[in-house]
Design a protein that fits this description.
Blueprint (H helix, E strand, L loop, with lengths): L4 H34 L29 H13 L24 E9 L2 E8 L2 E5 L4 E2 L4 E6 L3 E9 L5 E9 L8
Antiparallel strand pairs: 1-2, 2-3, 4-5, 5-6, 6-7
């Protein structure tokens, strides 16, 4: 072999590869051009947008239909004509302990005086005596029983439908050791 043999073989293979490569690309390009000429896309026109007609709310001064004031007014009307046996007497004068909510009261002890058992309630820094039958709390509560460890209270409240229902509450003795 001659010393030019590797060069001739390299040149020959380059020429052969150059002739093969261009024809496939050309065929693809011709096919794409033909499809592009024959294809005619159709696009449907978009519909005209609807015109917005603003609505003027004219009842700004009217009572909001979702107002609690309206709901409470209707409940008060229904309660006024109700013949429910649990309905409290709202015309009677309120006792002193009816002005405080039950969650502000703390039972701190009991005592007996004149044969009756009294519970000692602390509200803020003041101490009050209470016995069975007295009224307590803001929900028309009546003390039903005073024991050494708790005060049982029957309250009368309105449910979601406006009916007067009874519920029981309890104030338990709070000991100083536990801080409860």
């Amino acid at each position: 072999m001659t010393r030019y043999s590797p060069m001739i073989a390299g040149a020959l293979s380059a020429v052969l590869l150059a002739g093969c490569g261009d024809s496939d690309v050309r065929e693809v390009r011709d096919w794409m051009a033909q499809v592009q000429r024959e294809t005619h896309p159709t696009v449907k026109p978009l519909a005209e947008p609807k015109t917005f007609i603003p609505y003027a709310y004219g009842a700004r001064e009217a009572l909001d239909p979702f107002s609690q004031t309206k709901l409470l007014g209707e409940l008060a009307k229904a309660a006024a004509v109700s013949d429910n046996p649990n309905k409290p007497d709202t015309a009677r004068p309120r006792e002193l302990l009816e002005t405080f909510p039950l969650d502000t009261m703390v039972m701190v002890g009991t005592m007996e005086k004149g044969g009756a058992r009294y519970a000692l309630l602390q509200i803020d820094r003041s101490l009050y005596q209470i016995r069975a039958g007295q009224r307590v709390g803001q929900n028309f509560g009546v003390v039903t029983r005073v024991s050494d460890g708790a005060i049982d209270i029957r309250e009368v409240v309105q449910d979601a439908a406006g009916e007067w229902v009874e519920r029981m509450a309890k104030l338990e003795l709070q000991s100083k050791e536990t801080g409860k």
